[in-house]
Every structure is written in structure tokens, then in C-alpha cells.
UniProtKB/TrEMBL annotation:
Gene3D superfamilies the record matches: P-loop containing nucleotide triphosphate hydrolases
UniProt KW keywords: ATP-binding, Helicase, Hydrolase, Nucleotide-binding
Organism the protein comes from: Flavobacterium cucumis
Annotated transmembrane regions: none
InterPro entries, sorted: Helicase/UvrB_N, Helicase_ATP-bd, Helicase_C-like, P-loop_NTPase
Record domain Helicase ATP-binding: where: 145-282
Keyword Nucleotide-binding in annotation: yes
Pfam family, one: Helicase_C
GO molecular function, one term: helicase activity
Domain Helicase C-terminal: 374-530
Record's protein name: Helicase conserved C-terminal domain-containing protein
Keyword match Hydrolase: yes
């Protein structure tokens, strides 16, 4: 055995030691160890822990020591080593699971440490029990420290599922702030966070939409996106939050409009309330100083971290029908001698619940369909699956291609599926044991709590312009597997889920051909996970530590890289000028409109903002409002007429065409009130009419497009000015295809229209209302489909216009409302429950998401 002094001097010697490598390889591959090898590997684990204790910066040595203990425990069902280390570092959920929940180790039988164990065992149970789960020592001390802190800026950095919701609830309980903002990055997280807060029985009004806020609300909790929170601050000059929780705070590092809105929200709230408390929550921040926003209070950010994760993970690599175990600690690759195809590998290495990551929506669907065709089971007669399929056939469409997948226990989701369908599918995957596979893209990365046991990563792409999954993206992705509430579920009989198995797979179609100059091998991404140091890449110039010199600039030549850097620098100056500008009170109508455009990211749709605003002000003067005018026509007359040369958003550019304006007017007035299946059928009729009119090309966006604008005969102004046709994006699709393909396109197009109306047209409607171009009743008619305040409150709360429309038709609207704390309530619960039970599955699902 290598001597201890040498290991302490340079632990890399041990990692290269032949004897250690052979035994560690056997442990990794679940091969049998001899008794002396068991003793050796456990002793080495202890040495790793000692080395970490001597220098806490060397977290990698804790991780490898803990992995050895976990792996040994799961292999030999000898829980004593894991119990001992858990007792020392305060992994109390593991102790509870081993000794009480499953009695995997009887402390009374261990006479050697009987007294010490008994005392520790009794003390932790009372102190660390939190509701129906136990906290770790780090988790408990961090939570208590944060809720008792008097600091103005606080960061809680902890792995996924380490008590974020509990921390928020306890902080509010302890400190009783009046005006609370919980800022979440996506609308899908609004409901999840709302239910977490609602269930903690707070005596606060809950606000999920900026228009639910009233200036006289003295005590409220706003569960909001950054856009909605910003609109609350801008609704009245004296509005502010006492406390702001920033969920997924690492998003502040990004360089996009939503990150800028988030940092400006913090700046503006600080200007209104210099004593604001900001609490940053993230699993992915290495240096808390990188969260510091310019033009806010000086000083450091008080930070508590959960350094140690209960979970570990193993990496596997598949390429050309061969598979390997990749040792992320030593960098060794062990041949597993398998010879099977891509889909058979996924099937053979699957568990009860499996997540397959793919980025592009079209490839996500194709992957799910191809996987399904390789699974030799038929669930079409399974009662639970039959019910789901029946629901989809009746309420979506009989030709929806996910039905084929469901028959094999596979589902898929991505950002181009309407929210109601996506959330319904997630629920089925979560609750139905027979559904084993979910194929999804980045929609699964932020906060969705699903019972995933293993992950298959089929591409290393993470976003537009071929961005790659960096190490933080990968860690966040891996964190989706085996969330702690599933690991320590009362029905679990072992702790095997503490080691997640993560598979990286090469494939010419689903990842890309190796050797392509634009291709980055998926194996190169896998190897990043043996890096010991995480780095915060700050791309947001409104953050104090932002440094353009630390960014990488791409280009074919050195000159091109320099050109891109200078372009970046100009953008930085513009962004900082805008950040300064929006913090000041406007002195004219021109400045008020400019401020509004910047705060709401409308300015990104135009070039030459000053010129655009001058033109809009003239258009407003020349326009006479008439209640009979159509809303999209008003947008066109105010925002686009005489501004076409400065309009750079392709989707808004389409509104130059009268047919497009007619289409969206009808969508807002009629289509969005329809049942989901009606909306799909309406689109199918629209497709049919386009084909009959010899106009078969449909704008669909880059996710599904297979034809450029010039191929479709519909180039935009920007494309007409660009002679380099090869750079044009494929954003159109030819509708002359099969019925099933058309149905799938209709579902995708429906989501695209939902997003276009929700994120762009609704924003522009709000602008028309806020600048008194349209009346209040007119605005309500188009935004909510009604001028009835009772119905409007339900839509603001989150119910769709189509659901409200049905409730009104069924004379149930008087039985549903919001209580004094803003929660959805049925006045006569029994009567409403009886009504609900008679309704369609998706209708029930949408109501029950919110109803107590």
C-alpha cells in the first residue's frame, strides 16, 4: 500500500498507482473484490477524506472518497462505512434511511460505537427533521444562518433539491416582510412555486400576474417572471419589494434580454428601496461576487453553501456500437465489450424512469419515434395507457404522433408543444409506471421535478448558434436524475439511486458526424466532467465583475475575431447606457416611450430607436381610435407604418401583409377561446386553404423549417438586402405532405402562435393601452376576451381564456373565484367537484393545477 505521507504530498501518485487503478477499476465495473482489496479500497477512501480535511479547497478528494464508500455499500450491502461517514459529515437523511426507514443497519448490534451512535442518533432526529424529510448538517445550518441574517444581499448555493422552497417559506415566516417578490425564470415554474408557497399557509395575498397587483396591497407575495415584476414596479412610481428571491440566479450571467431585465429589476428596486434584501438561489454559482449588480448597494454578498452532495454519478460512453465506462476521477476509459446498436443500448441500460436529452424539437420527436419502434412491448391494451391515448385522441387529435410512442411507454416534450399538452404529458410520465422514457430538450432543465433515474445525452448542443453544453449545463442536466425526494421516498428499499448513471451517445443523426469542422465530439463534453474547478462565465455587462477580455470571440480569422469583439463592445456600451437611462425619471413623452421600450425589450425589434419613437409619436397623433378597429391593424398603424425600414423582427415583419393581420385578428378574437382540438382543426383547415390557394409554404421557424424564404417565395426585407442566400435560415415548411405530418405541424404551429401572441403581440397591446391609444374595455376585450373583472382575475391567475369561456357557458363561473389571499377557491366544493368529474381530462387537469 502506498504510504500515507506520499499520498498527502501528491495524491496524483495514487491515481497513477497500478494496484489502486486495478482495484478501483474492479469497483467501478462492479467486479468482485477480495477481502484484502475491500480493506485496501476502504482505507484509501479514508485517506482521501483526510486529505480533504487538510485542505477544504480540494473538493475532488471528498468526491472520490465518498464515491468509493457509496459504490462499496451498494455492491456489498454493507452499510456501516456509509453510516459512519454520514454521521461524521451530517448526512442525516442517509442515516434515517438506513437505520429507521429500512433498518438496513441496526445500531444496537454494533457494540463498538453503541454509546456514541446512540447519542448522535437521538440528537439529530429532533434537530434536523423538517416536515416529512430530514436536512443535512450543511443544509440545516445554512437555512438557519440565512433566515437569521441581517445582510442585504444573500446567496444560497446548493445542489438541486436541497430545500430552496423551504428556505423561502422559513425566511418569510421569520422576517415577516410585507412585499415579497419570488422571481422565477419560466412560466411553468410559476405554478410549481405557487403551490409550494400556498401549501405553507402564508397569510399573504398571492400575486401571479402584474395586473393582479394593487397599489394598496400592503402584504403580498409576488410569484412572478422578471417581466411581470418589472411591470409592477413601473405601474406606480412608489411600488417596490422589501425582499426579492432570485431563483436560478446563475441566469444573470447570460447575455440576453431576459437577463438584462432581471438585473435592471434589481437596480430599479434598489433605487426605490435602498434597504432591499436580495436572496440569490442557485446550484451553479462558483463565486458569489459574480452576482453583484452595478448601481446597487456596495459590499459583499453573504453566502452559505452546501458543499457536499448526497449523490454521485457514473459516466458511460457509446460510440459505433461499442460502450465504455469513463472514470471521471482518473480519466481512464474502460471497455465494456458490448456490441449492440444505438437504440438497443438505450433499452438495455434503461431503468424504471429514463430521460433522453436532445436539443432540436424535430430530432426530439424523431428520436422518440425511432426508440418506440425498437421497443418490443405493446401497451395499447394497458388500462392507464388506453386512458391517456383516449384523452389525446379526443382532446388533441387522433393522428397526434405521440400516440405511437405511448403504446411503447415513451413520451416526448419540447418548447414547441403547447403548454397544456406538455404539462399533461409530464404529469403522466411522473405518475404512470408503464411510461419509462421521456425524450426532451432544455425545457426540462429548470426546476421540473420528475422521477428520472438515468439520463442519456444524445447531443452536446445547448442552444442557438450551436452553443455547447458547458460543464455547468452538464451538472444541471445530471442534477435532474434522482432528486432527493425520490431517493429517500418512503417506498424505496435501498439507496442505489444515490449513484446516477449518465450515458453519452454518439450518432450521426442525433449528434452529428464526427470529423465535421463545426462538430464538437460528445466525448469532449463528457471529459469536461473530470474538471475540478467550475468557472462563472459572466456575459452580462450590468454585473460588476464583467470583463470583456475574459470572453471568447469566434471567427474564421484573427481579424474577424477582433471585429466581433468590437461589435460586442459597442453593444455593451449601448446596454449600459440603457441601464442608466431607465433608472431616471423621463422628462418628455419621447423619453417615457424610450424607457418603456427598453424596460419591456420592445426596442430589440427595431433599429434606430430614436427615429422609431419619433415616427410612432407622429403615427399616434394621426390615429383616431375606434372600438370597431381590429387590434392587429392598430398595432400595424401605430408601430409599423413608416417604420418598416427599421423593423428587424421577422415575425412582426409579417404584419405588413393584410392576410397575416387578418389571421392574427381572428386568432386573438376567436381561436384562443376555442378548445384545444378545435384550435388544431382550425389550423388544419387553414393549411388546406393555403394548399388550395397554391400557397403551400408556411412560416414555422428554424426548429421545423426545411425551406428558406427565397425557396418559399417570401423573402423579408432584410433577406432581400442580403445577396448571400446560403446564410438564409430555413424557416418555412411545405404543407404538401401526409395527414399525420400536418397534424404534428398544426400542434407545433399552435405553440408558435401561442408564444407569438403571448410574448410579442400581448406586449404590444399593453403598450397601446399604457399609452392611452386604446381604451381599457377594448384592451380587456382582446387580452382577456371579456370586460368582466371576475373573469379577468381568473385569467390573470393563470386559467386559459378557453377554460374561462367553458366555465361561463356551463354556468359555473359564479362558483369559482379568488379568496382574500389570492388563492383559487370553489364556493361550493362538492358541487364544483361533481361538475369537474364530468368534464374532459385536460379541462380537469388545467383546473386542478391551481385549485385547493
Amino acid at each position: 500500500m502506498a504510504n500515507e505521507k506520499a499520498i498527502k504530498t501528491n495524491l496524483n501518485i495514487l491515481l497513477k498507482d497500478y494496484f489502486f487503478k486495478k482495484i478501483f477499476e474492479k469497483l467501478c465495473l462492479n467486479n468482485e473484490l477480495h477481502s484484502n482489496e475491500k480493506e485496501y479500497i476502504l482505507s484509501v477512501a479514508i485517506l482521501f477524506f483526510r486529505f480533504y480535511d487538510n485542505d477544504k479547497r480540494n473538493k475532488i478528494y471528498f468526491k472520490i472518497g465518498y464515491y468509493i464508500i457509496l459504490k462499496y455499500t451498494l455492491k456489498y450491502k454493507d452499510y456501516r462505512p456509509l453510516y459512519d461517514i454520514s454521521l461524521q459529515i451530517g448526512f442525516y437523511p442517509i442515516i434515517e434511511f438506513i437505520t429507521i426507514t429500512n433498518k438496513l443497519l441496526n445500531v444496537d448490534d454494533e457494540s463498538k460505537n453503541l454509546i456514541t451512535d446512540a447519542i448522535a442518533f437521538i440528537s439529530y432526529r429532533e434537530k434536523f427533521k423538517k416536515g416529512d424529510y430530514f436536512e443535512s448538517l450543511e443544509q440545516n445550518s445554512s437555512r438557519i444562518s440565512i433566515i437569521n441574517s441581517n445582510e442585504n444581499e444573500i446567496a444560497y448555493i446548493a445542489p438541486t433539491s436541497y430545500g430552496k422552497s423551504s428556505l423561502i417559506a422559513d425566511f418569510i415566516d421569520k422576517n415577516s416582510p410585507n412585499k415579497v417578490g419570488i422571481i422565477v425564470p419560466t412560466k411553468s415554474l410559476l405554478v410549481q412555486t405557487y403551490n409550494d408557497i400556498k401549501n405553507s399557509n402564508k397569510e399573504y395575498k398571492l400575486v401571479l400576474h402584474d395586473e393582479m397587483y394593487n397599489e394598496d396591497d400592503e402584504k403580498f407575495i409576488g410569484i412572478l417572471t422578471q417581466e411581470r415584476a418589472t411591470r409592477i414596479l413601473n405601474s406606480k412610481s412608489n411600488s417596490f419589494f422589501d425582499v426579492i428571491f432570485i431563483d436560478e440566479a446563475h441566469n444573470l450571467f447570460k447575455r440576453d434580454s431576459r437577463s438584462f431585465i432581471l438585473s435592471r429589476l434589481i437596480q430599479l428596486n434598489y433605487k426605490r428601496n435602498p434597504n432591499q434584501k436580495v436572496i440569490y438561489l442557485s446550484p451553479l454559482v462558483e463565486d458569489e461576487s459574480n452576482l453583484k449588480i452595478k448601481k446597487t448597494k456596495d459590499g459583499t454578498i453573504y453566502t452559505r453553501r452546501v458543499q457536499h452532495d448526497f449523490k454521485s454519478f457514473e459516466l458511460y460512453y457509446f460510440d459505433e456500437n461499442k460502450s465504455f465506462f469513463y472514470d471521471r476521477f482518473t480519466g481512464e476509459k474502460y471497455n465494456l465489450n458490448d456490441d449492440k446498436n444505438y437504440f438497443q443500448y438505450i433499452i438495455d441500460n434503461s431503468f424504471n424512469k429514463n430521460f433522453i436529452y436532445q436539443l432540436k424539437p424535430k430530432l426530439t420527436e424523431n428520436l422518440a419515434l425511432e426508440l418506440s419502434s425498437n421497443i418490443n412491448i405493446d401497451l395499447s391494451n394497458n388500462e392507464k395507457i388506453k386512458k391517456i391515448i383516449s384523452t389525446i385522441k379526443k382532446e388533441v387529435h387522433p393522428e397526434f404522433q405521440i400516440i405511437k410512442c405511448l403504446e411503447k411507454g415513451v413520451v416526448y416534450i419540447h418548447g414547441k408543444i403547447p403548454n397544456l399538452i406538455k404539462e399533461y404529458i409530464e404529469k403522466q410520465f411522473k405518475e404512470i409506471d408503464e411510461i419509462k422514457f421521456i425524450v426532451a430538450n432544455t425545457v426540462i432543465l429548470e426546476g421540473i421535478n420528475l422521477p428520472i433515474e438515468t439520463i442519456f445525452i444524445t447531443t452536446n448542443k445547448a442552444g442557438k448558434q450551436n452553443e455547447r453544453l458547458d460543464i455547468k449545463n452538464l451538472i444541471n442536466l445530471i442534477g435532474r436524475a434522482n432528486r432527493l425526494n425520490y431517493v429517500f421516498d418512503k417506498n424505496s428499499k435501498d439507496i442505489d439511486k444515490l449513484i446516477s448513471k449518465i450515458h453519452f451517445l454518439e450518432h450521426d443523426t442525433y449528434h452529428g458526424k464526427k470529423g465535421d469542422k463545426n462538430q464538437f465530439s460528445i466525448f469532449q463534453s463528457l471529459k469536461k466532467l473530470n474538471e475540478n474547478k467550475l468557472i462563472d462565465l459572466v456575459k452580462n455587462p450590468t454585473i460588476e465583475t464583467y470583463d470583456i477580455e475574459k470572453l471568447e470571440f469566434y471567427g474564421d480569422t484573427k481579424e474577424k475575431k477582433i471585429e466581433n469583439k468590437e461589435k460586442h463592445r459597442k453593444e455593451d456600451n449601448k446596454l449600459l447606457d440603457h441601464s442608466d437611462f431607465v433608472l431616471k425619471l423621463p422628462k418628455s413623452e419621447n423619453e417615457r416611450m424610450k424607457k418603456y421600450f427598453i424596460e419591456n425589450s420592445i426596442e430589440k425589434y427595431f433599429d434606430n430607436l430614436e427615429e422609431v419613437i419619433d415616427t410612432i409619436l407622429i403615427n399616434i397623433q394621426n390615429y383616431n381610435f375606434d372600438f370597431n378597429h381590429k387590434i392587429v391593424d392598430i398595432m400595424y398603424k401605430i408601430l409599423i407604418v413608416n417604420n418598416v425600414q427599421n423593423l428587424k423582427d421577422f415575425e412582426l415583419d409579417r404584419l405588413k401583409n393584410e392576410k397575416a393581420r387578418d389571421y392574427y385578428n381572428y386568432y386573438i378574437e376567436v381561436t384562443q377561446k376555442q378548445h384545444l382540438s378545435q384550435r388544431i382543426n382550425s389550423l388544419l383547415i387553414h393549411f388546406s386553404n393555403k394548399i388550395k390557394d397554391k400557397d403551400p409554404f408556411l412560416y414555422i421557424g428554424t426548429a421545423y423549417g426545411d425551406a428558406t424564404s427565397i425557396e418559399a417565395g417570401k423573402p423579408s426585407r432584410y433577406e432581400e438586402l442580403n445577396n448571400n442566400y446560403k446564410d438564409w435560415k430555413k424557416v418555412y415548411v411545405n404543407l404538401e405532405t401526409t395527414e399525420q405530418s400536418l397534424v404534428n405541424l398544426a400542434i407545433v404551429k399552435l405553440k408558435i402562435e401561442e408564444d407569438f401572441v403571448s410574448y410579442q403581440l400581448t406586449l404590444l397591446m399593453a403598450f397601446l393601452y399604457d399609452f392611452n391609444i386604446i381604451s381599457k374595455d377594448y384592451y380587456y376585450k382582446y387580452i382577456y376576451g371579456t370586460t368582466d373583472e371576475r373573469l379577468i382575475n381568473l385569467v390573470r391567475f393563470g386559467l386559459s381564456v378557453s377554460v374561462i369561456n367553458k366555465l361561463e357557458i356551463d354556468n359555473q363561473i359564479d362558483n369559482l373565484g379568488l379568496d382574500r389571499n389570492g388563492n383559487l377557491k370553489a364556493k361550493d366544493k362538492i358541487k364544483f367537484e361533481n361538475y369537474l368529474n364530468l368534464q374532459s381530462e385536460l379541462f380537469q387537469f388545467e383546473i386542478r393545477k391551481y385549485l385547493n
